Give the backbone structure.
Amino acid sequence: MTIQIEIDGVAVTTEEGGNLVEVAAESGVYVPTLCYLAGKPALGTCRACSVKVDGRVVPACTVTVTEGMRVEVDAPETTDMRKALVEMLFSEGNHNCPSCEKSGRCTLQAVAYELDMMVSRFPYQFPERVQDHASDKIWLERDRCIFCQRCVEFIRDRATGKKIFSISRRGTNARIEIDVELANAMPPEQVREAVDICPVGTIIEKRVGYDDPIGERFYDIESIRDRALERHAE
Amino acid sequence: MTHTAVYRSGRVFFGDEIDYRALLDRCLALTPHEVITAISDSGLRGLGGAGFPTGTKWRLCRAGAGDEKYVICNADEGEPGTFKDRVLLTRSPKQVFSGMIIAAHAVGAAQGIVYLRAEYAYLREYLEQQLAELREERLLGDGFDIRIQSGAGSYICGDESALIESCEGKRGTARLKPPFPVEYGFLGKPTAVNNVETLAAAARIMDRGADWFAAMGTPESKGTRLLSVSGDCAAPGIYEIEWGTALREVLEMVGADDARAVQISGPAGEMVSASADADRRIAFEDISCGGSFMIFNAQRDLLGVVRDFMQFFVDESCGICVPCRAGGVVLREKVDLVIDGRADQSDLDDMVQWGRIIAQTSRCGLGATSPNPILTTLQKFPEIFRNRLQQQNGALLPSFDIDTALSGYGEAMAQLVEQETR
């Protein structure tokens, strides 16, 4: 069924039941996302897509559009909120873009550029996080983990459906973990999928690095906003 | 067993012994619709703190898809300062279990779970024995039974969706809502999660009648509630008060002569002033209260209290969402700056702005309420913050210590000199 919603004061006609991130993109409005993956159940962990729906702040990735919905994406308050959440991520972990293998294809980096983040308003925590090299094919660079849970939910052992990645501990002590036995059983294409699904440089494939030169990677060439909007224009 | 003084009771809780057989025989003879109507008519609202109308919750759960439904008693009493559920479970377990049996009849559940917080593990054997007695009396076990599930010591599992995750054997993290547990709860089935006190009240309502209950309280908050009173007063303990009782009356009742502040509903609630808020009423329409009532006199260091509460949220954040996980720490650091006398006005402004962002963007109630110790205390007692502020002197913030900031450079240079002269 066709419905009408309003995004930043502009009437948008769309199909009922769509995801707000997608509906916004179709109408040319970019909503930054980190944990959200099109076509997968919303994780709602990063909150970076927070917008106002009928006056309430909600993550757009969890919203299914309904008739008459009033959405505010570009209001000063919501824009600053999203930027603050991204800044929080930079202050809680150790994100050194120039030395990171993921630079140029890192969602966090691309979103930070897109939101004009220069420096985090929050004090940098410089946590001590230990890397995990135990698996044969994957190396976990915990400094960069943003706990989006993409790998936890969507990368599973093909035979048993068991989780390969998990989070241990809680709060600021939360830690991404890898089941070494299951990880060693991952076929090469699943390892690649895990690397690609990671929005930062936490899941890194061993023995493969800098395959594309930095400066020629997809976010180096085209902004995350343009890529997101183009996907819908096609 | 622990012994906690119950100072005022008698109407809904701890009063006359209920004839459970007669009560349950009568309730089970009613249609579920009649039970739900009675609970709705009584005006009972969830006494865990959120205040959702209990009758509506049961009706939604009953209307949920499928025949498999669950009722869960939330006995994960984790809000600092509350101990009323512990006392109810100790003194009136059968009133609570009767409430569950009535709820199960109303929603159509065959199984009930008591989610017992880890710290109450010592109660488990006693509660199992109470359940066994109910089974012997054939009040349980015939179409509906109750099992006890122990928590593992996490505050977040007081959130009904995190509690359900924990019941399923998963990590305790709040689910995205909607869907709410009444549609998609335990094992994906419609589930009614009610607080211990709510279930006990439901049993009494079905015993004494909806009108009797609704005659007490205020238009938006019917009946009575239990307060867990602690802190600077002559008689800490459990008090049953009618909703609508003024703060002043409670303070007089408990012998809090020199109270300065009261933390209502625990760290997640609000700090109120014993003088400025004295005439305000404990009710959903004024001072909403989840049962925790902590009194502080003028000798107490309220900033230290705020700091401890912020640390509590840092410790208890499950870590699944960014604002609660990363934001709690930076807020606590700001309180530390104030305590250390290294903050200026801009730090207070940051706390308010950042607190608002965390409150609005967090995934669940834990994060949404975590800035409250700062925001509500700053509102009621701004002087305790302002008295410790420094004036910014020149271009540098008072929180910036230039010697510390440059010390790394000095150390590195010293090492370099040592290497080069070797």
Notes: DSSP finds eight helices and nine strands in chain A. The helical segments of chain A are 20-26, 76-92, 107-114, 150-154, 180-184, 188-197, 218-221, 224-233. The longest strand of chain A covers residues 2-7.
